[in-house]
């Protein structure tokens, strides 16, 4: 280093590390150009306002007082980079797991955003329940344990490698994450949050986990992204009754927009002395299989129709369900999803000292976004194209809360070697009427808000990383 640049610091030389307070693990996080960290102070201005005295003088002075440090603010962008861990990898690779599970370079940020960020069996949870569930081909992040007043915190280190100067953001919490669908770009996540204080860190920061950082096969191409739009419709299942018990269950219509997996329902339609219990399996949002778990007793022969509706909260009439397509064929040209914790940092208000924020509290969780696509009309008149989507949503005039299932499959519907994917699944979305965007090619822009099954639920969105 020459004398002329010995006191200059370049952003291209900066490395970022995140130390989870709950685990003390230090993750190396490659970031893109445009990162920031800053902390200002809150001050009070006192002014004089008086009339003139007998000498014609009116004092107009000002005094300033520092009250407190404002919460530190930080932001940076990362690529979305899933990978399969390689246990036993040797330095300089520091593995994230002792099992070949799917992880992500940026997963510690999701852990901080979705809960307490406690590592359990190399997954993440709140100490009792995991919300970041690891798997050999896919790992799933949910927000089921995020209904809490505080989330996990971390120390974020910005290391200026040219001289070893390091700044640390203490008690940092993740407030917001945004993924943008730049059609010609690589999938990125924009992270932002706050912290208690920025301090000069005198010690050298060394990562304990850096797996996937140098991989070149774990980037995701946005152009491969697919969008699934499914209105949630009730399914119809008929049952046969013999000797007061359920003996057969048949799917008449599998509905749309149902959750993946198996759910057990209690059949109380006939007021039987013992409820029958059936479970159903779901494929691509449609009920495809029914199993009688408990036949029940005391049913009458005319108890032959069950409407599987307990997972629905939309207010579609039968006529509206019939008017809606089972799914819509919409090809993305762009869009974004933003998940926000709406954090607030609390600061004491003592006189005579400059107070420091002591910690954060969560606000209302919000998940919203937008997607754009070309205006298209299918010559076959199927009605599931973008023009039909606009007409159908606009026609739901007596429905005040829409209920659509949206899945953004970033990188494609199926992961292959060297082409990982990440899915954002939102089972209940309120969709605004799409607006026309007049350009060289006319397009539609649609805003949406993901909702929980009920207002107190924390199942607005699930994030699934897949890698093979």
Characterization of this structure:
The chain is mostly beta strands and 468 residues long. The protein folds into 3 domains: 178 residues, no CATH class; 150 residues, Pnp Oxidase, Chain A; 77 residues, no CATH class. Helix content is 5%, strand content 43%. It has a 20-stranded antiparallel β-sheet that branches. Strands 19-18-23 form a 3-stranded antiparallel β-sheet, with no helix packed on it. The chain has a 3-stranded antiparallel β-sheet with strand order 20-21-22, with no helix packed on it. The longest helix is centred in the C-terminal third of the chain and has 10 residues. The model has no long low-confidence stretch (mean pLDDT 88).
Question: What would you report as the Rg, rounded to the nearest angstrom?
Answer: 27 Å
| Beta-strand content bin | 35-45%
Q: How many DSSP-defined strands?
A: 32
Helical segment count: 3
* Overall outline: globular
Provide the residue-averaged pLDDT: 88
Low-confidence stretches: none
What would you call the structural class? mainly beta
Q: Note the main sheet.
A: 20 strands, antiparallel
Helical percent range? under 10%
Number of discrete domains: 3
The end-to-end distance, rounded to whole angstroms, is 43 Å
């Amino acid at each position: 280093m020459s004398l002329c640049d010995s006191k200059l610091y370049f952003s291209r030389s900066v490395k970022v590390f995140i130390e989870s307070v709950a685990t003390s693990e230090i993750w190396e996080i490659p970031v893109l150009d445009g990162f920031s960290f800053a902390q200002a102070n809150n001050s009070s201005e006192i002014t004089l306002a008086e009339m003139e005295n007998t000498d014609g003088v009116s004092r107009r002075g000002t005094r300033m007082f520092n009250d407190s440090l404002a919460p530190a603010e930080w932001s940076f962008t990362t690529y979305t980079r899933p990978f399969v861990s390689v246990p036993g990898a040797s330095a300089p690779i520091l593995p994230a797991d002792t099992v070949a599970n799917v992880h992500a370079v940026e997963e510690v940020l999701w852990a901080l955003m979705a809960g307490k960020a406690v590592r359990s069996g190399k997954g993440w949870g709140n100490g009792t329940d995991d919300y970041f569930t690891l798997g050999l081909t896919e790992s799933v992040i949910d927000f089921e344990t995020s209904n809490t007043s505080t989330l996990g915190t971390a120390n974020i280190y910005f290391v200026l490698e040219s001289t070893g100067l390091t700044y640390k953001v203490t008690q940092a919490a993740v407030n917001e994450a945004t993924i943008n669908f730049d059609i010609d770009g690589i999938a990125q996540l924009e992270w932002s949050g706050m912290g208690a204080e920025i301090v000069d860190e005198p010690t050298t920061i060394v990562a304990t986990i850096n797996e996937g950082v140098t991989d070149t096969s774990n980037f995701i191409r946005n152009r491969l992204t697919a969008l699934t739009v499914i209105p949630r419709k009730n399914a119809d299942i008929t049952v046969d009754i013999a000797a007061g018990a359920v003996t057969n269950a048949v799917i008449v219509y599998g509905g749309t927009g149902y959750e993946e997996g198996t759910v057990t329902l209690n059949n109380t339609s006939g007021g039987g002395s013992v409820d029958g219990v059936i479970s159903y399996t779901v494929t691509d949002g449609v009920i495809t299989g029914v199993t009688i778990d408990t036949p029940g007793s005391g049913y009458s022969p005319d108890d032959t129709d069950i409407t599987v509706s307990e997972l629905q909260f939309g207010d579609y009439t039968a006529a509206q369900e019939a008017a809606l397509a089972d799914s819509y064929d919409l090809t993305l040209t762009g869009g974004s999803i933003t998940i926000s914790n709406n954090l607030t940092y609390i600061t004491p208000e003592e006189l005579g000292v400059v107070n420091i924020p002591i910690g954060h509290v969560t606000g209302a969780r919000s998940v919203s976004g937008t997607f754009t696509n070309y205006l298209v009309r299918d010559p076959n008149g199927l009605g599931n194209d973008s023009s039909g989507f606009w007409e159908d949503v606009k026609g739901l005039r007596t429905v005040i809360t829409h209920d659509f299932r949206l899945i953004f499959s970033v990188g494609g519907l199926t992961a292959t070697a060297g082409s990982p994917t990440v899915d954002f699944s939102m089972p209940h979305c309120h969709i605004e009427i799409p607006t026309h965007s007049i350009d060289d090619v006319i397009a539609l822009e649609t805003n949406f808000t993901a909702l929980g099954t009920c207002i107190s639920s924390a199942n607005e969105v699930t994030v699934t990383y897949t890698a093979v």
